Amino acid sequence: MGNDLIMSEEEIKNIDWDKLTDGISHDESVMAMFDIVTGLVSDVIDEWMNTTVYARPPEGPDDQFECSDGPFDGAQEINLGHIAALPILNMIAEVLSEAGVDPEDIAPAIIHSRKDLFLGMVGAMMVEGIMIAHAPAWRDKMDAAVKGIREIPDDWFGPHGSGLNI
C-alpha cells in the first residue's frame, strides 16, 4: 500500500524539504511534499496493519473478542489489519443476509482470495483519515477532538499499544 520509502524515524525528522524541492515550482514542491508525506503515513499504516497479535473471536453472544500481544489459550495468530477489516466483512455478511443470501453459502476461499483487496481498502481509508485530519479545514477540529489522548495510559491501547482496546 505504501510507497516503500523505508526511512528511519531519524531520517524522517531530518528531511530537508528545501533541498528536496530545490529547482521545481512551488506547486510541484507542494505536490511532492504531499506525496512524500502520504507515502510515509501509508508506510506507518502498513507496519501497523502487519503487526502480529493473538486473538480469539467470541464463541457466543455474551463472549468478548480477546486480543493480546502474546499467545493464549484458543487464540489464533493474526495481524492487526485483519482485525481492522472485521467490520467491513461483518457489514458484507449483513448485506448478504438481508438480500437473502446465507453468508455460510459463500465459500471461505472466495473471501480469502480477496483478502488483499479488503486489507488495502482498510489501509487506504486509514491513510485518508489521517491526511484529512491534517487538512487545513479539519486540523483544528481534529486537534480539539483528540485533546487529552496522550494522557490516556499506554496499556489501555491494547496489544503493542496498537489502539485496539478490545
Description:
- With 166 residues, this protein is mainly α.
- It folds into two domains: 1-49; 50-161, no CATH class.
- It is built from seven helices and three strands; from the N terminus they run αααβββαααα.
- It has helices at 9-13, 17-20, 26-49, 80-98, 108-113, 115-133, 139-145; strands at residues 52-56, 66-68, 76-79.
- The chain has a three-stranded antiparallel β-sheet with strand order 2-1-3.
- Helix 3 crosses helix 6 (115-133) and helix 4 packs across helix 6 (115-133).
- The longest helix is centred in the N-terminal third of the chain and has 24 residues, at 26-49.
- It is globular, with a radius of gyration of 20 Å.
- The mean pLDDT is 85.
Compact overview of the structure:
The protein has helices at residues 9-13, 17-20, 26-49, 80-98, 108-113, 115-133, 139-145; strands at 52-56, 66-68, 76-79. The protein has 166 residues and is mainly α.
